[in-house]
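Quick entry, no commentary yet.
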Amino acid sequence: MASEECQSLLLSEYTEYGGLSSVAESALEQVEPSVLSWEELRVKVKKSGRELLQGVSGVTQPGQLMALMGASGAGKTTLLNTLLSRNLKGLEVTGRVLVNGNQIGRGITAVSGYAQQEELFVGTLTVREYLNIQARLRVNGSKEKRTKRVMAVLKQLGLLKCQHTRIGVIGVKKGISGGEARRLTFACEMLSNPAILFCDEPTTGLDSFMAESVVAVLSRLAHSGRTVICTIHQPASQLYEMFDSVMFLACGRTAFLGTPAEAIRFFERAGYPCPHSYNPADLIIHTLAIVPGNEIECNHRVEEITQLFDSSEFGEKLQRDVAAVELRAAPAGRQRADRFAQFSALTERAFLDNWRNPSLARAKIIQKSVMGLFVGLLYLRTEIGAPAGIDNINGALFYLVCELTYSTLFGILTFLPGDYPLVVREYHDGLYSVSSYFVSRSLSYVPLFTIDGLVMMIVAYFMIGLNVTLQQFFTCLLISVLIEQSASAFGVMLSTVSPSYPVAVSLAGPLLTLLSLTGGLYANVGQMPAYISWIQYLSWFRYGFEALTINQWSEVSAIPGWSNDTSKRDATLEKLSFSASMLWPDVSIMAAFILVFYIIGYIGLMIRRSSSDYQSSSGYQMNMPRPRRDPRIRINQLMRRPPPSLRCQLLWKCQQRLFASITGPGPSTPSTTSIASNLRARGDPTLVLDVGAYTPDRIRNFGIVAHVDHGKSTLADRLLELSGLVKPGERESQMLDRLQVERDRGITVKAQTVALPYKGYLLNLIDTPGHADFSAEVSRSLMVCDGILLLIAANQGVQAQTIANFWLAFDRSVQIIPVINKIDLKGVNVEKVENQLKSLFDFNPDEIQRISAKTGLNVAPILDEIIAKCPPPEADPKKPLKAIIFDSLFEHYRGAVAFVLVREGSIRRGQRIRTYHGEKEYDVVEVGIMRPDMTPVSALNAGQVGYVICNMKTTKEATVGEILHAVTTDKSLIQPFVGFKPHKPTVYAGLFPVDTSDYEDLKQAVERLSLNDPSVEIIPDSSPALGLGWRVGFLGVLHMEVFSTRLEQEYDAQVILTQPSVEYRAHIKDNETIRKKRYNGKGEIRIFNASSFPSDESDIEKFLEPMVKVRLVVPAEMMGLVNGLCSEARGERGEITSIDEERMLIIWRLPLAEVVVDFFERLKKMTSGYASFDYEPDGWKESRLIRLNIMINGKEVPEFSQIVPGVMAMARAKLLVSRLKREIPRQQFEVQIKATAGTSTKALSQTIIPPWKKDFLQLLKGNIGKGGMERLNKKLSHQKKGKAKMKMLGNVQIPKEAFYNVLKN
């Protein structure tokens, strides 16, 4: 859909429910059009000197919606903060930000609105209440004017339906939706009717429709005459088309500024075309991203694109637009409301927030009521005249002081931490002063933290039976109010001077402990040591407790037994070192405490405000009138551009790319030469490699093959360092193992290539996997190798996969160089390994290399040995193009990447090519080599190994063994490559999501991962128990585990893998009627699971199961045990060869079904890990197969049915039955589990889950005699009949977890 149609549709739908009406728009005053421009902005971190922005310029006109885009770290947020003069502390900023040609610095906050990404509101208010208070702070004028403005904004932003809905508090009170909250953010900014509106990530967290509606609102606001700028992260295609202009940033530089359509054209010219099925924004952002581990290539690409933009017509236009901004009067900014208006609005908001907050108002009152009741019950009607009663009363009074303090103080500690983000935002928006907020918020707590304390005191006062004279009662209430307000003021002070809420809480505990210990109850205040007694004078515990005690015992006539004897009062007070004359001084001191605490709190808040201020840095000109534009400014701008020669080269490069994309490659590429020379001038030879200088006789293509954990990746690391491609310690080890699963397991899964320049030769290294499951990767590598390094670990010797790799290379006539690794380990016998190589492969000791890849010992001569012994590739540069695809991977933004060996001719960017077998034509977008990351080059010539990107949609188009040739070459003249045999899956398993609601996400993950693993076969499947899923074919069990692990690590998918099985085949009897009627005329069918097993076994002539040839390298003393294991697995023994006096090589032919289950685990356990094995397909063998059925109470459960060889049926049946008995819960009736074979009803294994039963012996109460046994038998008979009836009518409830645990691998 076109951009205009999309906006029109969204706006029309939006207006239907109350938003964006013309009436609402007219209610807002017209804004003065404002042009925002910025010139040569440079932002640098003062401490580190790192540049965040590097000479960024731009301009946006009224009526435009501009989007700032780029990958993480590109500089979007830094540019937005610089334009707003916010969050610049610690940064050095140079350049100018202009509004209508005027440099107004921090004054830009008065003429603009800023809708930040984080939505901060007072959640207890309704939408309209919140906007009304915001209007009192933002809009000067009468109440009628503010009301009209609020209504206009409500209508304009579609908030009328939710205007009386509370905004909501996360986790406490549900409120408005995410889209409504985002529009409410815009509404607050629109109250002041700004000419410029900034938005930070306005679509984050919204679904696609709400995101489009929000962008439609911004577009409408922009088209009403405002200037709107927003940052946005990878918008959808529809959103991308809705912007009027886009600015792409990369590494703090401008990569493009213009319309969305112009951006697509520019990047297409730069060699990064966007396919029709791709999102342009995603492709561009991915192109500009700096990928960890691939920084050199990415920085090279970004530098190339930014230079190309500066010299393109788009960059020229940007410079002209910035220079052409006219000097006009800056728009009038909003003015702050007067102090009284600020105070009244903030006070109203604070009171509403306190009283509507259920965790504050109601909770505090209920808490204090309960505590007052508890204290009253504890000291209920205490005899106040007795000595014990006096102590109890004093204890009750001190507890009341503590209760008034602790709950109040910890409740008030959220005073600033909860409000601080919103306060900072509104303060720096210029809405109010710090004093207005502080006074209003402090006053809002006074009623709340007065009423709750009074409730507690009143309840406790009369229940305890304290003196009930009217004067003493009200004096007690006054003292309690002062105590609570002292705690409140202290909490305010503590929350403002502490940097965070946890710090405030951690300080409050020790301080309260000190103040309470010196409060007069725990220690006599008159007998404290001098070095500690001073703390009592800072404690309101002491003054509050003293005042309450004096007030209680001052009226002696009301105390029974005292008979107006004031000496008893004085003795009671003297016991605590209190004086009866200190009542009102104590009251005065507590009032002074309140005042001092609030003053300190205010000072702390002012300090916090200053330390978090959005300050401009030195060098950033602010609040200075801009001089009339001088003609010399234009000259200086021209002089700051690249020199003419470089500009001409870059322009020529752009034209060449555009020309090449239309007509094919040109005769020369000066752009590549100029960039290469620039890179050489920077002194980094690893960034560029002139592959055109290497003729076929100067090229060697070799690989490294070995058994698992023999050191292939470590040796590859050393070779990369020797060639100078990377520096020692520059990257982490196992540089060519790029997958997380490879690093976690310490194995190589995917073959990797890298080009190594060495002594005038180009050595193309291929690092291959070592496990038998990934032998397909080794086969692909050998397609393009003229030599291999056969690596053997000195501590392990020749292993099974070593032998398999040798014969793979030997069959292809590849030069083999044996290398013994890990010779630095203690106790290794190198001569023993040499003898093994001699006896098995006929290698002479003098041709064996001995190295330590870990330490680098003797590694350097290996490269010389490769050059000397490996033949150059058979290649002819004079013939037309012929390139062989030997591997591929999939990138989500560039499609399939084909790895090729160029046999003949050359392939270059812009060339039109065709696939031999697929007969599809492509335009080459990029060619390059691996160093070890993708590095683009101008062309790949005969004999060279590299990659080709040509907009192939999937890796299925880049089939291994496919031939690429020029479209001008006659297909009949091309000799296809016949040396590669495609590998087919041997192991199959069901793949299902743990949660069925995750099916679509898992489907996308499986499809994406399978694009990078073409050896995986995926067939849709379903299960009534597990839901929708797939039957997936793998090369082996390890391949299956790696695939599952990659799903979890790379796509965060939670999956269930069922037990692996193999493919069986069935030959149908040579009966035309049977074949046509039941099997669609097929003479042979494939069987993957029980559902595909023939229903009538009489139709089958014979069943076939796959066999494998297994090579086992085992210690000689354990050969008997291993042979027994293989015999038990229905194997046929083959040759036995002695490797040396300690180890034997045994060949067995085994059914694949036996190998994929637990053969390897049993072999390792039996030989204590000293045995190794390798296997390869070895045809089919006739076998007796049966379908194993699971019956539960006579009903078959298809999910548990399996296909097993007849000899395995009994063991598998017992295993399934025992698992089901453990997983199925007991029912109210008996549950019978039975495993049967085929159509037979005879049980191979069965068990019974007993039902729940009622204990009738308890009903008899031990009375067995006198008819007790008769009643018991009668009850049991009735129960038995009931259970039998339930068994006939009831269904067994099998929980989903039972299916998971029984079927999982």
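second:
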Amino acid sequence: MKSQGYPLIDIGKQLQEEYKAVIDGDVSCGAALCRLSKRCKEEKEFLLSHVKSESGSTSVLVVENSRLARQQLLLGDEADFPSAAISVGLAERIHEYKSDRLMDWDRIRTERLEQQHLEDRKGRKQRRTPKDETDMDTLEEFGIVNAQGEYVSEIVKKHLYEREALIQMLQGRESAIKKADAKSMRQEERYKQLKILRNQHRNWKSSSSPDPEVVLRILLEAVGLYYENRKIELQESSPKISEEETNASVLADLHQRQEVEFNIKIQELHSKSKEEVLHLIVKENKTRRLEHFDNIAYVILGTLEITEDEKEYMQALEEKYNTLRERVIVMGLRDEKGVDWKRLPDKEKKKEIKERKKQEVKIRGEGNYRELEELIGPRGKAKMLPSLRKLMGEEKGEFTSRFAQQRETGTIYDEAVQGSFDHVNILADLTSRLDSEQEALLGWLKQSDTKSLPIKVQRLKILRLRLETYACKAEEDFEVAARFVGLLERAEASLHGRHMSDNTRQQELATRRSNLRRKRLLDNDMYERKTDKMPNPSSGDLIGWQAAYLRQVILRHDEEREQLLQYLQDETMDDLTEAATMMSSEEKKLRLAELHAKRRKLDLHKSGDQEENICILEEAVAIRFVCRRQEIEQQTRRSPGKDDVIIALLRELQEEQDKEIASILEGIVNLDESELENLRSKEKDSRDSQELTNVFVILTQSEGKAHEKQLIKALTKKYEALQETLIREALGHKHGRKEWDKKSARDKEQMIATVKQQITEMRTAGNNVGLIEVQGGLKWERTVTGLMGMGRHEFLQLASASEGENLLSEEDGVPTDKMYNALGDLWMRFAEEKKHLLQKLKEVDFCSNSTQSNLTGLQEEYMSDIDQQIHTVRLWREELLCYRDNKFTVTSLLVGVAERQRTDGRPRLTGDKTRYENLATSRLDPDVKSVSTFTFKDQVARGPTTTEQMNSAVELLESKHQAEQEFFTRLLSSSPDKALVEELLPLSQQQRKDKLQAISDQRQDVPIERSKEHQVFFEKGLTVKREICRHRMSEESKAEASDSQVHRLLMGELIFAQNMEAEKLLTEFANMNEEDLCTLQAKLISDRKLNVAENVVVVVFSPGLILDGSTEADLLEALDGKYDALRDKLLADALMKQYGEAEWQRMSDLERQKKLAELKLKQKKLRREGKMDELAHILGDAFENQETLKRLMGDTKEEQERKMKERLQKRKQRLAKGMSEEECNKLEEEEIAQEEEEEKKKRRNILLDLEHRYEEEKAELLRQMEEGEDRLSREKSRQLKLMKLRRDERKARDEDKFDSAALVLGLAEEN
């Protein structure tokens, strides 16, 4: 059934019906006893056979004996025979947790059993587990078999009292309140609250003396949430599910979990010694007595099972978060006790910390998270701290998925503002973050891909956690530790580009570290060099040696930061800084290079070279300080303070250190113990000799990148051109269009230059009011983003995340303020685009200069050298588009759609079609003159660089595009051939498309030089295309589309086609040499002069609409064509009957076609108005003797399936009553004959039948369009359906009469 396309729900129902028929039978007491006797014999034979087949295996004997022992114990727990029978029957078989009730009859049995349990316990007091602690003396006397039996007994008892507890939680006194509370919450809120409760449950379980009342409170609330979620799941298949049925389903989940747990526990029982079995008994007994209700927690909270192999990972994770908690506690104690904290001996400090940690564990275990604020510091301290997410950043799971997307697309996505939990306080948030990270880690460990990795690769996760733990321990300040650990969690991103939030975090970390060092100096606290106090790892402890090496790296990094700040914050450095200020930019670069080379020759083990190293370092710090200060001044247009420069340089050092850590982590898996030991020794030596490798990297690194200046210059010119268009429009509005047009070009340019200067000054000063005034009172219906749409970077990011979508959503872009600052928004857009561009360049520079083998190939993921070159040319094209029009709204539309153009035209923003239509309106407006402030030259550029050749090709392409638009405008304004229009009106869309193809084929046979003949073909083709578009637009809007509307659509299609051509050309540049570029330029010049108008050809002679995002229009038109063919045949038959066959044959073909066309037009009008009966009346008795459509074409697929199901159901019922197959077949034949006879007697409006059949096929077609796993499969299915519909239309038109046409199509459908 599945292979035949039946839905799973139908398959499940069918299986249930068949199974029910099998198990139905005699339900009398005697029959039951007989069946029990027979079942006992069968089971005995099976067990003996099974044991024999396994050669009397101990494991089989123990497992089967344990199952039988459990089944006997279950009999004593049930009140009546039906419940006992179901319970024992279920215990005989292996179960799947939360199986599908449609596919698993045992799931239905389980729910039925639990419904009975719920009914039996309704209104009764909960049975609590007795506190019967295991008597070890008695157990010691047991043999191994008796001990195994006692173990089974303890499990059964535990399961019983778990069931009792869950029944109470589902229908006890407090259950209604908890369910009502859960129902009032949104689903996402329920899942979030369940996660919080899972945290509380884990903390409760980890506490030294867990209170049973606490877990009952947690589980009671969780059951209400789980109940509501489960109810929503069940309503998908049973909308009217009752509370009792939902309760039974929840209880059945617990039952199946208990079945799974029991079978897992007895599988290894045979391998346990008596002492081990006794230990298991004690453990089960304790769990039951203390009412842990582990299986309830598993079902309701989704608690995670941790295997022995996973425990080390979890322990490393717990240690990391315990260290973070300790940093918070120390922060609270330090703030609370003030200066007294410093005076306390270390022993007293440890005692205070230990006491606070105990309090924290107790409060956390009770779930009173808000009370944790008291441990964070004095009153109000917790609220003053930044949130944990702000300090540490996104959670591990978020980062993994986001970074994978970044690696795939090369686009840097920022983290979400909100994580998986709400902020409460730092300590509470640490618990929630731990839960999230634990979930992500366990998920990763349980993946099949992870398990296929070598063990040493898997265990790198432990190394990462230990590294993060040590980094936290190395920092005394909590805020520094939290930011540092957060950035280390995402260290690999430093090699590929950190997102904006982490860049901000890096800045905040540098600021905090700089400020803390200044404070330390004011308090006369000397820097204490840190040492690794951990013992040497033992032989064979690979993770231990890896961690030991990385700890030395962390310590070296700490000293590098201290040394850099020591020089930067040293007041005696001012003289050197002053001297560096006097040097030119080139002199500074040259001197830094000299210092770098000089230092490389030093032997830092010699005291003399160490002194020289200090001198080099001082001078390099001074020069780099001045360079960085100038860079900041250029970027911010303000003079930075000394601290600003210090923080900027410290941040650069931190970023370089992060890259080093990431590189080490990438290659460390390939190092053996001896190599790690050697590297650790080198790290110690590097610290002792104060090499300060990363410090010299950031002081002497190159400042230039290959195409950065060209790209930034091109980007700036693009936005300056956009700004100039806005200024021109604003000045024209301010002075009045007539007065502005009267001014000379020189006067205009002077006024524009003055305004540009004013804008620059206002932007520097942050004068937004002035920027609004410069706009001259222009009215803004859309923001800059609303006009242009999102930038290319954001669009590509969205397109990648929405793979397969043709249309991507965007914001409406309506200004919120009446006084909208368009200039401010324009330059904000520039800043955003520049930021993303620089980020990519930064990654390219790093990747291309890296010498590490494990970074090979990284460059291809980002902008290569040729990518940068082409992007420069792309920006030049976008600048050229700014010279097309003197209205900013039009120019911004033009540039915006060009930025996002893809070679295949997909995807697009939802508003892009409107943008193209608005551009078309502007182009076709007779009152708007085509204005271009750029002069194009018909000249092939042959150098001196390929970039200039590419720029020239883009200029020639733009010139060609303008010529195409002018030609197409003239073409649209020409008068259509009225006779051709009349000929087209009664035709179907497919007939029109066939005619368009015929004209196109004729045109292709004519040489391009015969321009007059081509003009005729263009005019004819446009007439046909106009009617094709008009029909489609009229169908969509349910109103006749005017010529102006059609023309606007077609001009938009042309602009879109031109953008596609430009994007393809930019892509092809990557594979072109100088000769190819010269050939291309010559071709573009020739095509424009010969008026090849390739894009006009595409728009006019393509049967479809390239700008139309709909995939349904072609199919629906083809379906219309098929039924139009049937209607045409029907109408022709009707006319022949009206006039008589003899009279009809005497008419000329022209007369017959004219009368048929008139009738078709009237038929279309009446169809559109829904007046089918009036049409039948006009045609008179032409349909009187017409056979019904159903008899000609047969049933639709839907009717066939319905009748087939009905016949199958009747057949089953008849067979169940004892009828033979022959009798069933005979009855079915009689029923079919009777149906056909009744159909013959019906007198139907066949046109109405045809319309009904059309609507049914249309609905089925639209439904099928939604099917398909991906875009490719859906498109393939669409093409096949389109071919079939077009073939059907041709078949219908090839027949002479309606009857034969309908019959042919009916047979085609059957096949």
